[in-house]
Design brief:
- The structure holds 2 protein chains of 2 kinds.
- Chain A is an alpha/beta fold.
- Chain A has 11 helices and 10 strands.
- Chain B has 2 domains: 50-288 and 489-509, 3-Layer(aba) Sandwich (Aldehyde Dehydrogenase, Chain A, domain 1), CATH 3.40.605; 293-479, Aldehyde Dehydrogenase, Chain A, domain 2 (3-Layer(aba) Sandwich), CATH 3.40.309.
- Chain B contains 17 helices and 20 strands.
- The chains are: A alpha/beta, B alpha/beta.
Chain lengths: 295, 510
């Protein structure tokens, strides 16, 4: 009997809960760490990024309005579904990053655990970062964190799943919505993660994933006036200043990788370095309310 | 005028009829009586003819000997000549700050830093009258405000952060808070001493040293503060003060020896500063412009609201980044509220900042007066209806009448742009949803006000405001324990409270 012909997957964008191809009709060849061709990925356009920002904005009010506990459960479920796709992630991360099965498994396991770690913060971060303030006047004065809005993420280039999860979960857990540019050389795990998100309870539009050339897409995200904050961890070193200049135009909040940290050498398996409430706080606004006291 | 006085004095008038609305004001007339002057004495301030830069604990001239004049905006007279720093001076100041950070201040135990800051707070309290008078002379703000708000709050900020200096571990659980190093701090002219305290107190508490650049129109209280540092025996170089134009601010922002930049001022300059640190590791906090909505619901205590609206927009001549410059009045009470406001405006006293009864002092500079005048003209040109009380303005100095615009559309420049002057734009709404929509319809997000009798509505509206500070049944209140700062293009980072420390520390793992 002839061996069965494999059904290959088309890797698409994830925008507004749907999987469109790029409107530009372009793609690029993605190769594994060993140079073997893996698949064609969409080479998204500026228009795709703008579409993604639009749906992310539309999804913001609803996602931010979820109760903290509900958001925590919705995100925990993402980890449950990642667990079910574990073998697929192991294969894709292994091929993309040139890891042996044991190494790839360690990375995928840690990505799932990290998702759980951040999901658990949903109903706690307000208590850790908020305060009631003893003002010298008859007011109940309190400060609470609120999500910043639409967050643009330029995902880490080297760590295609664990790095991605470590940067995506923190803004998401407090109610931000996200437009994410995947690793350019290793985009396939990001696309598979978007398939997990699509079958989870995360509403469409809350996370949007585009693949393509960072040099083409990152400036669009950085210069977009409806993006409130930008994670530049995965911005190529030579583009750093250009991207930050664009982001300054509308006073975007920046979450920057320290210049001395070389992304390719950053240890994403190090929990102490990557499980940080500060990474959540970078995408929060502190609101202070003066409420009168008196009969 | 005389007739009215005779009428009221010859008959017994029931208390209710003596309310401001029965005075027949609010139709553009001048108030029918006069006030005796009540000037605060100036002699508590000893002005020097020349002031130097404060670098490394000493007053020194600018490297090229340059100076500029600082003017009393109420009289247009020159108060003093102040050294005009050069980029070479900026470099010198940053080096002095670095030396102090590594050799003295950074190595000092938190307990000792705390005591220095307590000392500074005490000296500010002791010399409070001197600071208040000087501040009003240099900035044009009424002595009532510099005396009761600016100076006491400045002292309170040092007091509050003094106590944090040896308790940083409690502010950041699980982390060790280390100083960032040298902070470049650029402050505006609207609250010169208060903004200095917001910047310097948390920076020093966390172990940083600073180079502070006051605004070029209001350098004097910062230079008097330099004397306070000496009086407190603060180690040399911990606080450095550079007076000069905006370019000196940019020289500091781009100086490679600076670890942290903190700026309060316009969004336009904030953008330039954010660009100035692009591509570096410098930490940045920005407190920028605003166009706050002050929302009055139909169940609000209207007379109390009127006072709050007046305080919201005419406090400090409206030269306040968080000023309540857009009044959103619920339609059913809008007419009554506007009538009451016009009545109240008629009794606002504009004039000599040093008069203890003055409510609205001088606009800080000629340039600012021109900007306000231009924007008010645009309001008229775009079809809004202008109201100004017929108060007399002094013949000299930069003064502007308290101004109120009705029939304002959201598209008008006076409803969109920060005027930074005593100009209120009145808009109306019908439902809470409409109020939220209009309040958030701005690129800014610094503050908002809500006036209602209903506690649950306060909290619901507070939640829906995209603004960093929400005042309910009050406005323009500040406290060192209360974090302050903006959403959106009003900037990022917080000043005040535990959150204010965050801007000046690097967190390391335990």
């Amino acid at each position: 009997m002839a061996s069965r012909l494999e059904v290959r997957k088309t890797y698409k964008l994830y925008i507004g809960g749907a999987f469109p191809r790029t409107e530009s009709g372009r793609s690029y060849l993605v190769s594994g760490a060993d140079g073997a061709p893996l698949a064609n990925a969409c080479r998204a356009s500026r228009k795709d990024v703008r579409d993604a920002v639009r749906v992310a904005r539309a999804a913001f009010d609803g996602w931010a309005a979820r109760t903290a506990m509900n958001r925590g459960q919705v995100l925990y479920r993402v980890a449950e579904l990642m667990e079910g796709r574990r073998e697929q992630f192991v294969a894709e991360v292994g091929a993309a990053e040139g890891l042996r099965p044991a190494g790839a498994r360690a990375v995928v396991d840690r990505a799932i655990d990290r998702w759980v770690w951040y999901a658990g913060w949903a109903d706690k971060i307000g208590q850790v970062l908020g305060s009631s303030n003893p003002v010298a006047a008859p007011y109940f004065n309190f400060t609470i964190p609120e999500p910043t809005g639409v967050v643009g993420i330029v995902a880490p280039e080297t760590s295609s799943l664990l790095g991605l999860v470590s940067r995506l979960a923190p803004p998401l857990v407090t109610g931000n919505t996200v437009v994410l540019i995947a690793s350019e050389q290793r985009p396939l795990p990001a696309v598979t993660l978007s398939e997990v998100l699509a079958t989870s309870d995360v509403p469409g539009g809350v996370v949007n994933v585009v693949t393509g050339r960072k040099a083409e897409l990152a400036p669009v995200l950085a210069g977009h006036a409806d993006v409130d904050a930008l994670d530049t961890w995965g911005v190529p070193e030579e583009m750093r200043t250009e991207i930050e200049l664009l982001a300054a135009e509308d006073i975007k909040r920046l979450s920057r990788r320290p210049t001395k940290v070389v992304e390719a050498r950053f240890d994403w398996l190090d929990d102490a370095a990557t499980e940080r409430p500060e990474w959540i706080a970078a995408f929060l606004e502190m609101k202070t309310v003066w409420h009168p006291i008196g009969g | 005028m005389a007739a009215m006085a005779t009428d009221t004095s010859s008959t017994i008038v029931p208390a209710a009829d003596r309310s401001p609305s029965s005075w027949g004001l609010g139709d553009g007339q001048a108030i029918p009586w006069e006030y005796a002057p009540a000037p605060e004495a100036r002699d508590i301030v000893t002005l020097k003819e020349r002031y130097g830069l404060f670098i490394g604990g000493r007053f020194v001239p600018a490297s090229d000997g340059g100076t500029f004049a600082t003017v009393d905006p109420a009289t247009e007279e020159t108060l003093a000549h102040v050294a005009k720093a050069t980029p070479a001076d900026a470099d010198r100041a940053v080096r002095a700050a670095r030396r102090a950070q590594t050799r003295s201040w950074g190595a000092l135990p938190g307990k000792e830093r705390a005591k220095y800051l307590f000392r500074i707070a005490r000296i500010l309290q002791e010399r409070s009258r001197e600071f208040a008078v000087l501040e009003s002379m240099d900035s044009g703000k009424p002595i009532k405000e510099s005396r009761d708000v600016d100076v006491p709050l400045a002292a309170a900020h040092f007091w509050y952060y003094a106590g944090w200096a040896d308790k940083l571990g409690y502010a950041f659980p699980g982390r060790v808070a280390r100083p960032l190093g040298v902070a470049a701090q650029i402050i505006p002219w609207n609250f010169p001493l208060l903004m200095l305290s917001w910047k310097i107190a948390p920076a020093l508490a966390a172990g940083n040293t600073v180079v502070l650049k006051p605004a070029s129109t209001t350098p004097l209280s910062a230079l008097l503060f330099a004397e306070v540092c000496r009086e407190a025996d603060l180690p040399a170089g911990v606080v450095n003060i550079l007076t000069g134009p905006g370019e000196i601010g940019m020289a500091l922002v781009t100086h490679p020896g600076v670890d942290k930049v903190a700026f309060t001022g316009s969004t336009e300059i904030g953008r330039r500063i954010a660009k100035g640190v692009a591509g570096t590791d410098k930490a940045l906090t920005l407190e920028l412009g605003g166009k706050a909505a002050n929302i009055v619901f139909d169940d609000a205590p209207l007379d109390q609201a009127v006072e709050g609206i007046v305080n919201g927009i005419y406090f400090n001549q409206g030269e306040v980044c968080c000023a309540g410059s857009r009044l959103l009045a619920q339609e059913s009470i809008a007419e009554t509220l506007i009538d009451k406001l016009k009545d109240r405006l008629a009794t606002i006293r504009v004039g000599d900042p040093l008069d203890k009864n003055t409510d609205v002092g001088a606009i800080n500079s000629k340039a600012q007066l021109e900007k306000i005048t231009e924007l008010v003209a645009s309001g008229v040109a775009e079809g809004a209806e202008l109201y100004q009380p017929a108060c007399d303005l002094p013949e000299r100095g930069y003064f502007f009448r308290p101004t109120l615009f009705t029939n304002v559309a959201q598209s008008h420049r006076i409803a969109r742009e920060e005027i930074f002057g005593p100009v209120l734009s009145v808009l109306t709404f019908r439902t809470p949803d409409e109020a939220v929509e209009k309040a958030n319809n701005t690129v800014y997000g610094l503050s908002a006000g809500i006036w209602t009798d209903k506690g649950s509505r306060i909290l619901e509206m507070a939640k829906r405001m995209r603004a960093g500070v929400v005042w309910a049944n009050t406005f323009n209140r500040f406290d060192p324990t209360s974090p302050f700062g903006g959403y959106k293009e009003s900037g990022f980072g917080r000043e005040g409270g535990m959150h204010g420390l965050h801007a000046y520390v690097r967190l390391e793992d335990r």
